[in-house]
Design a protein that fits this description.
- The N and C termini lie far apart (41 Å).
- Helix 2 links the parallel strand 2 and strand 3.
- It is built from 12 helices and 8 strands.
- An 8-stranded parallel barrel has the order 1-2-3-4-5-6-7-8, surrounded by 6 helices.
- It is of the alpha/beta class.
- It is found in: Cytoplasm.
Length: 298
């Protein structure tokens, strides 16, 4: 796999959705966070993905978030909107709404829980594509959805020029490399623990959670891989391991990312919506230690 195209740019953070302590949207913190991500090196932002608590935010809130981020970062930053659901009509409504609100691209995950057949998965994605002219990034994360994209479905979807990329969280870099070469789809790492491996195998970029606090390091990693300095890129990966583990290894990524941002003074509150709950004391202790060790907190 040779990264020759990056239709969804190169470094995106799957942004958390800041809430006030009351549970309402915190648009001030949202704008502040979006500006921070861009200043740190992100050229794209994913709004209302799983890390953005999409299952517990409502369509008007999702529209507000897109508008807020756009106003904060301007037109040059690529905004990806989550449009994933196990209800095709709901996914279509989210896709149409995100398009109207000004998103640049859509993230479409395989339907979870009801786990349709591969024919159903193909029909689902095509139906979502029918309601928007935005480019689509597929999200392959069978560990959460229980439904992986088959080779046959990816081959069919790749025939549609609107479907341009895959965010891969399967953990199988070799299979992803083969699929990208065969289909021409741009592959993006969807697992911070494997960002270096994906990039070294030619991925177009990363969609990160740890990027909330380490986007500048991931930007440097991408640059080193593009320059052919794999040892230098791997050194960054090794240095980030404690931080990746603290955010992604124990607690839930959205929860831990919010706590990190709150500790750093970026967002007003680490509040999450049920069924997510805030981190335990031991998780917070480990997170704080990792942030201090990384020089992100004094």
């Amino acid at each position: 796999m040779i990264a020759t195209a990056a239709p969804f740019r190169t470094l995106s953070t799957a942004m958390v959705t800041p809430f006030r302590a009351s549970g309402e949207l915190d648009l001030d913190s949202t704008a502040r966070l979006a500006r921070k991500l861009v200043a740190d090196g992100c050229d794209a932002i994913l709004v209302s993905g799983t890390t953005g608590e999409s299952p517990t935010t409502h369509r008007p809130e999702k529209e507000e978030l897109i508008s807020c981020v756009r106003a904060a970062v301007g037109e040059d930053v690529f905004i990806i909107a989550g449009a994933g659901s196990n209800d095709t009509l709901h996914a279509q409504a989210m896709a149409a709404s995100a398009t109207e609100a000004g998103a640049d691209g859509l993230l479409v995950v395989s339907p979870y829980y009801n786990r349709p057949s591969q024919r159903g998965l193909l029909a689902h994605v095509r139906a979502v594509a029918d309601v928007s002219d935005l480019p689509i990034m597929l999200y392959d994360i069978p560990g959460r959805t229980g439904l992986a994209f088959s080779d046959e479905v990816l081959d069919e979807l790749a025939k549609n020029p609107q479907i341009q990329a895959v965010k891969d969280a399967t953990g199988n870099v070799v299979v992803g490399e083969e699929r990208s070469e065969r289909t021409g789809l741009a592959y993006y790492s969807g697992d911070d623990g494997l960002n270096y491996s994906w990039l070294a195998h030619g991925a177009s970029g990363c969609v990160s959670v740890v990027g909330h606090v380490a986007a500048s390091s991931y930007r440097d990693m991408i640059a080193k891989v593009r320059e052919g300095d794999l040892p230098g890129a791997r050194e960054i990966s090794v240095r980030l391991r404690p931080l990746v583990h603290a955010i992604m290894g124990g607690g839930q990524g959205a929860v831990m990312a919010k706590h990190a941002l709150h500790m750093m003074g970026v967002i007003e509150s680490p509040r999450v919506r049920l069924p997510l709950v805030e981190a335990t004391a031991s998780e917070l202790e480990a997170l704080e230690a990792a942030l201090v060790s990384a020089g992100l907190l004094s």
